Amino acid sequence: MLAPDKHTDIKYSVLYISGLIMSEIKKSGTIQFDDLKNVIINQVGKETGDLFEYSLSFLFLLDRINYNKKLDTLYAEI
């Protein structure tokens, strides 16, 4: 869901979670996948469901974040 309507809780949207992911990656530089997921779940709540993965996919499609398979980490080239 990218377009909000009157029933949308912005806290559970791809755009909001993507923003949280970007701010966390920029703050730490490089972060492991599981650590990032735990941080986001602690900030938003366990109701995120698949939104974390959708938000990562969204950021990958926009070429905002990269994944290092060898280290299992996410990072952003600024």
Structure notes:
With 78 residues, this protein is mostly helical. It has a single domain, classed as Orthogonal Bundle (Arc Repressor Mutant, subunit A), CATH 1.10.10. It has three helices and three strands; from the N terminus they run H-E-H-H-E-E. The protein has a three-stranded antiparallel beta sheet. Strand 2 and strand 3 form a beta hairpin. The radius of gyration is 12 Å and the shape is globular. 14% of the residues are buried. The model has no long low-confidence stretch (mean pLDDT 90).
Q: What class, by secondary structure content?
A: mainly alpha
Task: Please tally the helical runs, counting DSSP H or I stretches of 4 or more residues.
Answer: 3
Annotated CATH architecture: Orthogonal Bundle
Report the sheet-strand fraction.
5-15%
- What's the SSE pattern? HEHHEE
Number of domains: 1
Summarize the structure.
With 78 residues, this protein is mostly helical. The chain has helices at 14-28, 33-44, 51-61, and strands at 30-32, 66-68, 73-75.
Secondary-structure blueprint:
Layout: H1 14-28, E1 30-32, H2 33-44, H3 51-61, E2 66-68, E3 73-75
Primary descriptors:
single chain, 78 residues, mainly alpha, Arc Repressor Mutant, subunit A, 3-stranded antiparallel sheet, 3 helices, globular
